[in-house]
Amino acid sequence: MGIEVNGRKINWVENETIKQLLRRMRYTFPLVVVKIDQKVIPRKDFPDVVVPDNSRVDVIHMISGG
Amino acid sequence: MNEQKYNKIKEKLRNSSVGIAGAGGLGSNAAAALARAGIGRLKLVDFDKIEENNLDRQYYFLDQVGKIKVEALKDNINRINSAVKVEVLNQKLEKGSMEKPFHDVDVVIEALDNATTKIEFIEEILLKLPDKPVVAASGVTGYGNSDRIVTKRFGSLYICYDEQAKSSEDDVLLAPRVCIMANWEADLALEIILGGNNGN
Questions:
Q1: Rounded to a whole number, what is the distance in Å from the CA of A15 to chain B's nearest CA?
Q2: With contacts defined as CB-CB under 8 Å, which chain A residues touch B112?
Q3: Is residue A66 part of a domain?
Q4: CATH code where residue B98 lies
Q5: How many domains are contained in chain B?
Q6: Is A45 inside a domain boundary?
Q7: At residue B34, what are phi and psi to the nearest 5 degrees?
Q8: Does B3 map to a domain?
Q9: What is residue B146's DSSP assignment?
Q10: Which of B37, B71, B112, B118 is the most buried (most CB within 10 A)?
Q11: Who's near B72: CB < 8 A, 6+ residues apart?
Q12: φ and ψ at B110, to 5 degrees?
């Protein structure tokens, strides 16, 4: 059992939400795009969406400027 | 130059379109690059006017200060390549309808400045136009270390990304880095339109 976050393999935690996962990974920056297995998760759903086992999570930090 | 390959590319680009959200540092320079490459149609969306301090990185000129950005950019594009059809929307993209101008383009370029708006825009395009390729940029500030920039791909989303760059509130925006990112976005749009592997 395990998940992959930005290429790093870590333990899967049952019923862990995206919000909790970001905290566990110490991703403290506020503005991120999260994809689970290629599906974009809207930020408003971070506290509710549970990360499934064996999933691949990508976290992208959006930085101001353009 | 490989004439046969060049002509094939020109033909494909002439029949393709790109929509650009934002006509600042990223959007104006990406538009100019795509116009030079020979894109058939560009759709430009921005609400802003040109200020003198934009000229350190944006594709405008001193005599255009005070003008509406998308109108001035259309003029500049047509001075480069009059065959490009340029559609402009002088409006702010509002949450809830951000995807609306981009239904009828082949590729969307995110060229906004504020990180919150960038995310809202990307989310809205991916959720409402799930098959539409989106090219975004994150990390355009500063100078030097440009070899940190990578392309991150997630399905239909492509991000030109320097994860170590700072926010524009804490750093500077200068032409070289901004233009690298803008041209990187334009180059990704070409890759999406023309197919990967450099057509080989």
A1: 24
A2: 66
A3: no
A4: 3.40.50.720
A5: 1
A6: yes
A7: -70, -35
A8: no
A9: G
A10: B112
A11: B50, B60, B64
A12: -85, 120
Q: Answer yes or no: do A65 and B119 touch at CB < 8 A.
A: no
pLDDT in tens, B159-187: 999 988 999 989 999 999 999 999 999 99
Interface A–B counts its CB contacts (< 8 A) at: 81
In chain A, residues with a C-beta closer than 8 Å to the C-beta of B137 are: 66
ipTM of the complex: 0.84
As a residue count, chain A comes to: 66
- Total count of residues recorded for chain B: 200
CATH number of the domain enclosing A35: 3.10.20.30
Residue B113 lies in a domain: yes
Encode pLDDT of B95-126 as tens digits. Answer: 999 999 999 999 999 999 999 999 999 989 98
C-alpha to C-alpha distances, B27 to A39, B96, B119, B171, nearest whole angstrom: 26, 22, 16, 20
What range defines the domain where residue A45 resides? 3-61
In a domain, A24, yes or no: yes
> Residues 6 or more apart from B108 whose CB is under 8 A from it?
B18, B19, B20, B21, B102, B125, B129, B132, B133, B134, B135
Number of domains in chain A: 1
B22 in any annotated domain: yes
